[in-house]
Amino acid sequence: MNSRLFRFIRQSKGLTQKRLGEMLGISEPMVCMIEKEKKNVSDKVNKKLRELFGDEYVEKCRKFLGEN
User: Fold this and answer.
1) What is Dmax (Cα atoms) for the chain?
2) pTM over 0.90
3) What would the pLDDT profile of 34-46 be if each residue is shown by its tens digit?
4) How far is Cα 2 from Cα 37, in angstroms, rounded to an integer?
5) Helix 28-35 and helix 17-24: axis angle, to 10°?
6) Which of 25, 21, 47, 50 is nearest to 34 (CA)?
């Protein structure tokens, strides 16, 4: 998962960086760094995001953004 998709999912759910961080078990600054492409989305965070919102939703977002 790339930072663009990560940010799109957060924004599409109407979440702040702080709230998404709480939901994922990471800090708000870490969410910010991921969105600014300073950190990669770890496998653990990707898995948790998919558990929270569902694989189908993540894939719909990916297709909407035109990503492979």
Assistant:
1) 29
2) yes
3) 999 999 999 999 9
4) 8
5) 110
6) 21
